[in-house]
Amino acid sequence: MKTLLVTGGAGFIGANFVHYWLATHPQDKVVVLDALTYAGNMASLSSVVNHPHFTFVKGDICDSALVEKYLRDYSVHTLVHFAAESHVDRSITGPDAFIETNILGTYSLLKAAKKVWLDGPKTLEHRFHHVSTDEVYGTLSATDPAFTEDTAYAPNSPYSASKASSDHLVRAYHHTYGLNVTTSNCSNNYGPYHFPEKLIPLVITHILHNKPLPIYGDGQQIRDWLYVTDHAYGIDLVINKGRVGENYNIGGNNEWANIDIVKTVCALMDAQFNQHPTLKTQFPEASAAHKNDSASLITYVKDRPGHDRRYAIDATKTFNELGYQPKESFETGIAKTVEWYLQNEDWWRAVMDGSYQNYIDEQYKG
Ligand code: NAD
Ligand code: DAU
User: Fold this and answer.
1) What's the domain range around 26?
2) Is residue 296 part of a domain?
3) What residues are paired with 249 via a beta bridge?
4) Ligand 2 pocket mutation pick from 93, 102, 203, 216 by most atoms within 8 angstroms of CB
C-alpha cells in the first residue's frame, strides 16, 4: 500500500489521474494538494470526495513548510506533481504566475521532498514524479523526426520555458542530492474535465453557444493528441517501472492539424444533434448544430505569438522499457469526449463564470 500526494489534482489531468488511480490501485491512498486557482475545480473530484482512501487539502505548492508537513503527516511515498499554470495564451499575456508556480513552486516541492525523504531518517522508499510536456522540446517542421528524450530542450513560450526550467531543477535534485525522481513529457491531452479555454472544449462550448470557433493563423499547426486516461496510465507505468533519474515521453502517435481537429469536433456535434432531437431543446442557442452546420462557425483569427508549428512525440523508449501503448483510439476518445460535454452541462457552465467570460473577451477581441 502506498500513499500518493498529487499536486494539482483538481485540474484537468490531475483529476483524471485521481479517478484512474483510485480505480486501478484500490489499496493505495491519494492526498490531493491544490490551490484551487481558476483552473482547479472540486466538481471534478465530486465522485471521490467521500472515498475512504481520498483526502483533499487546499494549499499552495510554493509554501514549502506546508508541503513538508503534509509529506510527514500523511507518510507520503510518492509525490506526483501536476500543479502548474498550463495555458500557453495566458503565459503570453501574463508570465508572472508561470514563473511563480511552475519554477518556484517546483523548487519548493523539491526542497520539502529533500528535507523529508533525504535529510532525516530514511524510513520510506520515495519517488518524486514530475509531470512535464512535449513543449519543452520546441517546434518541429513537417518533415522533422518526432521528439525523443534526447532532443535538446528549446522552449519557445513563457509557459514552456517555465516547464523546461522545472524539469532541469528536478533533474538537478536527482544528480546532486540523490532524490528519486522521474519525469514524463507528454503531448496534448483531451477528455473529460478539460477547462474550456483549451482548443477542444472551447470548440464544443462555442458550438453550444453559436459563437465563432477561433482558428489561430492558417490552422495548419500540428499537435499529437492523447486521451487523458492514457496519460494517467503512462504515468502509472513510469512510477512503478521507470528507472529513477530518467525522462519518459508519452504520446498518442496521433498528429492532427488544428483545422482538422476542429472540423472533426464539428461533425461529431452535428451528428449528436441529428441523433438526439432533445439536444435542440436542451441547447436552444446551438443553432448552427441544429442545421447540421457547426463548421460554418469556423473563424480564422490572428495567430498566437511565437506559435509552435508542430509537436510530435516518439514514445519508443517508453514502449520498449515499460510496454506503454495508448489504449484509447482517437475515434472512440474524441466521441466519448463530445458526449461527456453534452452530458455534463452543469460542470462546464459552472466554470464559465464572469472571470472566464472576461478572459475570452480579452483574448479574442477584434
Ligand atoms: P490545469 O491548468 O487544468 O490544472 C492545474 C491545476 O494546478 C489546477 O487544479 C490548479 O488549481 C492547480 N494549481 C495551480 N497553481 C497551483 C499552486 N501554486 N499550488 C497548488 N495548486 C496549483 O492543468 P492540466 O492541463 O491538468 O496540466 C497538468 C500538468 O500536466 C501541468 O504540469 C502541465 O504542464 C502538464 N501537461 C499538460 C498537458 C495538457 O495537454 N493539458 C500535456 C502535457 C503536460
Ligand atoms: O503539448 C502539450 C501542451 O498542450 C501542454 O503542455 C499545455 O499545458 C496544453 O495547454 C497544450 O498546449 P497547446 O497550446 O497545444 O493547447 P491549446 O488547446 O491551447 O491549443 C491547441 C492548438 O490549437 C494550438 O496550436 C493553438 C490552437 N488554438 C488554440 C485556441 C485556444 C487555436 O487555433 N484557437 C484557439 O482558440
Assistant:
1) 3-190+226-251+307-328
2) no
3) 185
4) 216
Q: Is the CB of 87 under 6 A from ligand 2?
A: yes
Instruction: Quote the percentage of the chain above a pLDDT of 70.
Output: 100
170: Cβ below 6 Å to ligand 1? no
- Residues 6 or more apart from 218 whose CB is under 8 A from it? 259, 300
Tell me, yes or no, whether 171 lies in a domain. Answer: yes
Q: pLDDT tens digits, residue range 285-330?
A: 999 999 999 999 999 999 999 999 999 999 999 999 999 999 999 9
Q: What DSSP line would sit under 324-347, residue for residue?
A: ----S-HHHHHHHHHHHHHH-HHH
Ligand 2 centre from 123 Cα, in Å? Answer: 42
Averaged pLDDT, 40-65: 98
Whole-number Å distance, alpha carbon 274 to ligand 1 midpoint, is 35
354 in a structural domain: no
Supply 81's cell numbers: 506533481
Domain count within the chain? 1
Task: Starting from the CA of residue 197, give the closest ligand.
Answer: 2
> Which residues have a Cβ under 8 Å from the Cβ of 245 and sit 6 or more positions away?
171, 174, 175, 181, 182
Mean pLDDT of 85-97: 98
Ligand 1 mutation target, pool 32, 36, 37, most atoms within 8 A of CB: 37
Confidence of residue 121 (pLDDT cuts 50, 70, 90): confident
Full-prediction pTM beyond 0.85? yes
Query: Given the C-alpha cell 495555458, which residue does it identify?
Result: 87
CA–centroid distance, 155 to ligand 1, in Å, is 18
Domain of 231: which CATH number? 3.40.50.720
